[in-house]
Amino acid sequence: MISAPNYGLADQFDNSDLQALFEQMAPSYDQVSSLGSLGIINAWRKRCIATAQIQPGMVVGDLLCGGGEAWPWLEQALQGRGSLIALDLVAQPLKHPIYLERIEVHNCDIFANRLPSQSLDRVVCCFGLKTFCYSELVRFAGEIRRLLRPDGRFSLIEVGTGNSWVSSLGHIYLQTVVPLLARGLGAPSLPYRQLAPLAQRFGTGKHVLQAFKQAGLSIEHQPIWGGLAHLFSGSRDSFQPRCYQIATK
Questions:
Q1: Which whole number is the average pLDDT over 110-124?
Q2: Which residue of 8, 23, 131, 232 has the smallest Cβ count within 10 Å?
Q3: Whole-structure pTM over 0.90, yes or no?
């Protein structure tokens, strides 16, 4: 059995905390994140989606979809053919209501979803991993494995930390400037102050590699901008490790 890593920070949030946190940020998140990152966050979303290698006609799952910020690029990849299924505890697509006519949205706990096994060709997740502790990451990886078809692929991206000056500067920026920007735009600043501790807890993302391998997925990791962001991609293996079988019984 692979041992869980030490985050260095206590797990701070349960589902009710997270729901309240993201409900407060939902109306302003897209604007604050886009302006606060000078558009870089959208470039990272596009890179995550490109890495998924989505083809027209596929069935794609957008897990922890938030406000549907990734939907324009997912729809572009599908070219009007195939299906997009979005899941989140708080799915509030305020900016892209037009997509609701074509997208199947499930407001639910990811661990309590009722999607059929092996129903997705691709899975993407943009900036949702930092809310999970290690045991939840293993469960999340196991859920991705359950949902993917045998030849399915996944692509995930998250903000974290690294060993470069870019990453250190980015963390300070996330901790100080982003909450001030949120307040300047008329949004509550307190929820945005939680993003830096969550990114710090996420760290370099090595625990994600452990968790996904433990769940029986092949996975690759690519730090972006010196570790300010982390891109993970891989596929569904044909085996299920014994350690994960025991953990899920």
A1: 97
A2: 8
A3: no
User: What's the pLDDT tens digit per position in 1-22?
Assistant: 334 444 333 344 555 566 677 7
Helices (H) and strands (E) in the chain, counts: 9, 7
Q: What are the angstrom distances between the C-alpha of 11 and each of 44, 134, 141, 202?
A: 26, 10, 19, 11
Rounded CA separation 122/84 (Å):
10
Distance of CA 189 to the CA centre of its chain: 22
Collapsing DSSP states into helix, strand and coil, what is residue 27? helix
Name every residue whose Cβ is closer than 8 Å to that of residue 204 and which is 6 or more positions away in sequence. Answer: 160, 161, 162, 163, 223, 227, 230
8, with CB counted inside 10 A (0-12, 13-18, 19+), is exposed
Give the separation between CA 182 and CA 189, rounded to whole angstroms: 6
Both tokens of 177, joined, read 């400037």
The token pair at 222 is: 């690519």
Angle at 11 between CA 184 and CA 201, to 5 degrees: 65
Query: Which of 176, 167, 155 is CA-nearest to residue 218?
Result: 155
Summarised one tens digit per residue, pLDDT across range 194-229 is 888 888 889 999 999 999 999 999 999 999 988 999
Phi, psi of 155 (to 5 degrees): -145, 125
